[in-house]
Design brief:
214 residues; alpha/beta; 5-stranded mixed β-sheet; 3-stranded mixed β-sheet; 8 strands
């Protein structure tokens, strides 16, 4: 019995030690407004597909520093892209394992990885650097693609504060991708049937309800 307890304590101690050897920087996207006009009104939904490299946690180990893990990268990137792209598409959704885009749907594949840049000429603190690329497909045909990178402000202390810098990078990249993809021409415009007219007439507002006091 004692040996099992001792073994459990040792395991907990090793796990705690391992956790203490790394920093966790949570990445959060901001509630940015959608890109400004003009945007093209596309006729089909768009699916956001993150490459397998965009994992929930991305860990890096700069020279002579403890490991730094950027957490929730996939959620931050997907939510920022969905928010930025919706004005241009009738529906924007993240592509799940069991989802199957319909013929004519758009699929936006995005890859993004992070690293930490030490203080230097860009500023007195650390910065988050994001590199990746995106591709837009429709029915298996590539329509557009770009390689991209963005660096946050260089004034963060090393550690969890770099999550704020990574959030800046996610916002910048998502805004750029949404602006670029949203401006692409629609080659299969939708021609919906015209809606019937709506007849209106002025109406006197109903008086407010009066509740009897007890």
């Amino acid at each position: 019995m004692f040996s099992r307890i001792f073994t459990g304590l040792v395991a907990v101690s090793l796990m705690s030690g391992a956790c203490a050897q790394s920093h966790t920087a949570y990445v959060r996207a901001s509630a940015l407004p959608p890109p400004p006009e003009p945007v093209v009104r596309h006729s089909s939904p768009l699916w956001v597909e993150l490459f397998p490299g965009v994992s929930p946690t991305e860990c890096v180990t700069p020279k002579e520093n403890r490991a730094l893990c950027f957490a929730d990268v996939d959620h931050a990137l997907a939510s920022a892209l969905e928010r930025g792209l919706w004005p241009s598409f009738p529906r924007v959704s993240s592509l799940g394992r069991h989802d199957e885009p319909a013929p004519g749907d758009y699929v936006l594949r995005v890859d993004l990885s992070f690293s930490a840049v030490p203080p230097g000429s860009a500023g007195p603190g650390w910065a988050a650097l994001g590199k990746g690329h995106w591709q837009l497909f429709r029915d298996g045909k590539a329509l557009a693609s770009e390689a991209l990178e963005s660096r946050s402000r260089a004034d963060f202390p090393y550690g969890h504060a770099l999550g704020l810098g990574a959030g800046e990078v996610v916002d910048a990249i998502a805004f750029h991708v949404a602006s670029t993809v949203g401006a692409l021409a629609e080659t299969r415009p939708d021609h919906p049937a015209p809606l019937p007219p709506v007849q209106t007439r002025p109406e006197t507002p109903a008086p407010p309800l009066v509740t009897a006091s007890k």
